[in-house]
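Objective 1b: paired records.
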Amino acid sequence: MKYFTIKELCYSDTAKKYKIDNTPSEEIIENLTEFIENILDLLREAWGSPIKVNSGYRCEKLNRAVNGSKTSEHLLGTAYDIDTANNQNKIFIEWLYDYLNKNEILFSQLINEKPDNNNPSWVHLSFEGRHPNRYRCQYFTIK
């Protein structure tokens, strides 16, 4: 793990504020490690500048506190809300979609979240864990 840590992918301001223990299980740690090694570090290398994970793993209590979906992939440690340096999220999401497709990386969802002038506030990227038959490769916008 070159650029990211498990701790970083589990950190939450909301968890800190409400004193929620967001410690992942061993299974979740495996998912997070797999994502760092096989996706995030590669994306950071290819993108060429910093990428920040704003939200990664969420335990059930934290997911409820942020009004997350009951079926959120964040609960499994397989969904990540990402932000780029210098407010380049619009360029990043387009680049990311092309990168995932060119490298034949299957994903569940790539979402342009709450855009301002089509520039995402953040980019949501999720995977269905170790269930490749459930990859949806959905790419859409949530306003």
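Objective 1b, second protein:
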Amino acid sequence: MPRRVSTFLMFEGQAEEAIRFYAGLLDGSLEGVEHHPPGSPVEGKLSAAVLTIAGHRIMAFDSPVHHQFSFTPAISLLVDFETAEELDRAAKALGEGGSVMMELQAYDFARRFTWLEDRFGVSWQLRLE
């Protein structure tokens, strides 16, 4: 049986900026932050890091290889909040420079909800418990 399942995010140069942003915004913790060595095509960029938010592990790194794909909104991080104020603050910060797929409002399935893509291309669903 699996011991653990983690979300893995592959960036092309913005991994460290993204995970530090997420950690600060969502009260997460970072561990195992490592950088690509000198001489690497992405020297100094993130080679490995683990971000933990509310017990969920998110691993991230900057790929040394350019890819013809990026993130897709078909897979997103769903974050439940205890208060509307916390949700609103996160939605504003994550939405800055990104795009909104579902406006922040009440829906049949949630008292308050939004679905957005942040400026790094990661898709987030934010909902009030």
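Strands lie at 7-11, 29-35, 46-53, 56-62, 77-81, 99-107, 110-117, 123-128. The chain has a mean pLDDT of 95.
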